[in-house]
Amino acid sequence: MRTLALVLLAGIIATPASAEDQAPATDQGAQNHRDHMVHAAAPPACAEAKPRCAQTAEPTFAKDGRLWLAFSVGDKVYAASSRDDGQNFDSAVVAATATGGVIDANGEARPKIVALADGALLVSYTARPEKSYNGTISIARSTDGGKSFSAARPLIDGAGQRFDIFLASPDGRLYAAWLDKRDAEEAGKSGKDFAGSGIAVGWSDDGGKTFAGKKILLDHSCECCRVSAALDRDGLPVFAWRHVFGTNSRDHYVAKLSADGAELLGGRVSEDEWATSCPHHGPSLAIDSAGAWHVVWFTNGKARKGLFYAKSVDGGKSFSEPAKFGDDGRAPSHAALLSANGHLYRAWKEFDGTTTSILAQISRDAGMAWSAPRVIASTTGASDHPLLIEHKGAAYLSWLTHEQGYRLLPLPREQAAATTRARAAVALTGK
Amino acid sequence: MFRKSLRLVAAAGALFALAGAPASATEFKPYGRGSFAELRKQHAGRPLVVHFWSVTCPPCLAELPDWAKIASERKSLDIVFVNADLDNDRPRAQSRIDKAGLSNLVQYGFADDFVERLYFEADKSWRGELPFTALIGADGALVTVTGAVDDPLIANWFERAGK
Fold this sequence. Notes:
- The complex is a heterodimer.
- Chain A is mainly beta.
- Helix content of chain A is 6%, strand content 42%.
- The interface between A and B is large, with 67 and 67 residues.
């Protein structure tokens, strides 16, 4: 501490400090912590407006074929585009500067970007105020191809919203959903117990300028896990989230917005017997061309532990028996699911103590059988959750890592095509 | 991304200390690769509780006062808190710790974004769910518990570890 203070007082704050220098000592406590040091150096500071300096990168493809990423560094949310599927990016544009607190930018809650059919871009972020874990979701729009963005505006007046997700339907309507604590706050004011948040839905018919609805349609969602969304065959959105059932049972709910926007209709995916806990580990949803709902999730319940897959062919009234995937010896986590061109893809993280790998599988029969898991990419440093994105009928892994930066890697549909199409070290193959 | 404000936080802490800031202000030591093993080594021969929490975990926040009670009642236990948030949430973590009366405990904060590794070092099957508590007996036996402090596993361990 004395050394560190002297160094700082000498005005050499910008000098890269070793991990040892960073360890603040204290006179408190009888324990022997004074000598404790972090063995491995923290990653170097990185504050440039580049995806690799961000915690998360959210992708979307624009109609002109450009790949756009939304990410945040410091108090700014950026949008950057690539004309070569993520190999090179143009200079990032500031989409918004957060003023209401810290930007949510972790695997679960993160800046989002949507490319609309008319070419407009919509970027969202959540800022959490200093003294609360509640947030305010704000939206900025660009109508000049991402050269500039409008001033960010809050989606809802007042705080209490986080974990936003946006989904554009083919008819031009833009749907939004988020976890909303308005009802929880009301209950709190009158001294009532209230489990979790609520799930709220809104929609915009003017490209995200204004949203209607914006009501909480179902109360008692969990409050620290992402919401996933997919469009059903009729263009209406279906959402998946972690929910509080009964007094304290945490399981997953999948439900579809009714045509009048007044209800969420669906059901419980499984009964995993998991009580209080904050996994920061939300589900992923995909809907295939036959209208089957597919969901993957993580649980650490008494009934089952790990990553699981199930599907519903009756609009969420019932789900198939949960089917485990991933190597339990390697802490499989953060699974993503995608339906593209008649196939289902799932990808997830595994960690062996040194290396984080993204594994993927393909199913050609709507989730009945899956190919052998294959490693698509790996890293030995910090990384974002794996995301899957469809573009022109093909499935891609979208993944940001500290060491390798941003990567967009195709998941080949055919074994024969794997060798020519995959840029990944090991390609995803079929049977 | 990746921990850019760590040095500034350290700098602020150092300057506060020099300015004679009140002793109640919580300092977070960096928790990185190897820290879990280091803690076990430092506390070898004594029962140790390492509790991981986050400001974005409502159940964690709800039980902070319970931990303050446990810390005051069970003096023979070494209790260490590890905040699993990023740097930019540390001021929030500090105010929560101070408010709950836990600032007399040793506090750490995640100082490495490679969180999978930090989780793995405490428990190979831990994927970051919180609250998470590692209980290490005087004999070195490790038990990990995901979930609230009122979990019977934790209560039973406390009884065995003594007051």
